[in-house]
Design brief:
The chain is of the alpha/beta class. The chain has two domains: 138 residues, Rossmann fold, CATH 3.40.50; 234 residues, Rossmann fold. The chain is 46% helix and 16% strand. It has 14 helices and 13 strands. The strands form three sheets. It has a seven-stranded mixed sheet, with helices on both faces. The chain has a four-stranded mixed sheet with strand order 1-2-5-4. Helix 6 packs across helix 7. The structure holds nicotinamide-adenine-dinucleotide (NAD). The site of nicotinamide-adenine-dinucleotide (NAD) has 24 residues, from helix 7 and strand 8.
Length: 417
């Protein structure tokens, strides 16, 4: 019999179902929240450097806008599927609700391997995406941002293409832009920073000192590499292992952020870092560390390996890294999971600050951004932590209870169900 293929959207729906039952949600509200309100599938012809034209396929899913315009990143990934985008859009809906910002959830993506495209091809693909999807985007409608393999430069091309379509600049139609084009101070490291604020509060809740705590980080892009930097700065975490798509490195004496990031910048990967031994991405997750930070892709902690995870804290910067079966195993083992849509909500929170600054055309100091982010993340963390204690459920379910409760209230008040 062939193994069942992991479907992230089915996982997102089953997580919601569990929360809906505990919340005793009205069946119509529950059914409404199980599905995206709208989705757009697009076909994108792009002129390649060799003169040929290649056809790419992309998506934009607007999952739920009952609390405000939909918001969510864009992925450029060869493994992108509509169900991945749907799941990520659902999680964005719960994420904006759990940190209580006035936005809904959306997500987008293009099936492509951006590493194989030249800068010119990448620019033409980014502009082609906006020419098709731009008609449903806008500050008041739906606002994309960077996600896996998309960057501030890509956001800049997209904002520029949209400006030509509209006939004027509307910088707030996309976030994660470079500072010179209406970006926000503090957006670059916001996802990891928000996660570190959560980790700080979790260490207070459990009364565990994080100074020198051994840490493993899977994924070394925006989320993972800034977690390394800020984890060292904030608490003196001892990061013993990090990885990227090519594999991982391990050194029990610790890996220095500046040296590892310089090595990755030079060679394109963390592997072959001097003085460290190679570990696979699977081995990294099972290392005997205090803090584990998944910061790459979905479904990495599952029924197959959850029992072997040794970390006390699992701070999920990636979206969807842990399956429902693994959640139960980790909870029974006493691991403290800071669930994805809480832990990685710093990115969308500062993206929201970016939209506010764009709307007012008035920009804040970086220290202001950090302070406001800290306030939002800390409040959200304790709401979820208290919910978990009160209802005696694991943290992800508690986060669902907080977030789904808020979205359901908006849906009811609007008279949708
Ligand atoms: P990124 O493109 O900056 O980096 C992705 C990293 O993951 C790279 O280091 C890549 O080498 C690595 N990677 C890819 N495939 C891998 C694999 N199979 N095993 C191990 N590593 C692998 O992306 P990012 O923005 O850092 O996003 C990482 C995760 O964080 C994603 O789940 C994303 O949805 C989530 N996230 C990002 C943001 C944000 O603001 N960037 C916000 C919230 C959540």
């Amino acid at each position: 019999m062939s193994e069942k293929v992991f479907n992230p959207f089915e996982m997102a729906q089953s997580q919601l179902d569990e929360a809906a039952e505990l919340l005793q949600l009205d069946p119509a509200v529950h059914e409404l929240l199980r599905w995206p309100l709208r989705e757009l599938h697009v076909t994108l012809p792009v002129k390649m450097d060799d003169g040929t034209t290649r056809i790419f396929h992309g998506f934009r899913v607007q999952y739920n806008d009952s609390r405000g315009p939909t918001k969510g990143g864009l992925r450029f990934h060869s493994g992108e599927t509509i169900d991945t985008v749907r799941a990520l859009a659902a999680w964005m809906t719960w994420k904006t609700a759990v940190v209580d910002i006035p936005l809904g959830g959306g997500k987008g993506g293009v099936i492509c391997d951006p590493k194989s495209l030249s800068p010119g091809e990448l620019e033409r693909l980014s502009r082609a995406y906006i020419r098709q999807v731009g008609r449903i985007l806008g500050l008041e409608k739906d606002v994309p941002a960077p996600d896996v393999y998309t960057t501030p430069q890509i956001m800049a091309w997209m904002a520029d293409e949209f400006a030509f379509m509209q006939g004027y600049n509307e910088f707030g139609m996309i976030t994660g832009k470079p500072l010179a084009l209406g970006g926000s101070a503090g957006r670059g490291d916001a996802t990891a920073r928000g996660g570190m604020y959560c980790l700080r509060e979790a260490s207070k809740a459990l009364n565990i000192d994080l100074a020198g705590a051994t840490t493993a980080i899977q994924g070394y892009g925006n989320a993972g590499s800034f977690a390394h930097k800020l984890g060292e700065e904030f608490f003196g975490l001892k990061v013993v292992a990090v990885s990227d798509s090519r594999g991982g490195i391990y050194n029990p004496n610790g890996l220095d952020f500046k040296q590892v990031s310089a090595h990755k910048a030079k060679t394109g990967s963390v592997i072959n870092f001097p003085g460290a031994q190679f570990v696979t991405n699977e081995e990294l997750l099972e290392l005997d560390v205090t803090v584990l930070i998944p910061a790459a892709l979905e479904n990495v902690i599952n029924e197959g390996n959850a029992a072997r995870i040794k970390a006390k804290f699992v701070a999920e910067l990636a979206n969807g890294p842990t399956t429902p079966e693994a959640d139960r195993i980790l909870h029974d083992k006493g691991a403290y999971v800071i669930p994805d849509f809480l832990c990685n909500a710093g990115g969308v929170t500062v993206s929201y600050f970016e939209m506010v600054q764009n709307a007012y055309d008035y920009y804040w100091e970086e220290a202001d951004v950090h302070q406001r982010l800290d306030k939002k993340m800390t409040a959200a963390f304790w709401n979820v932590h208290k919910m978990a204690q009160e209802r005696n459920v694991h943290n992800r379910l508690a986060a669902y209870l907080v977030a789904v409760g808020r979205v359901a209230e908006a849906v009811r008040l609007r008279g949708w169900a």
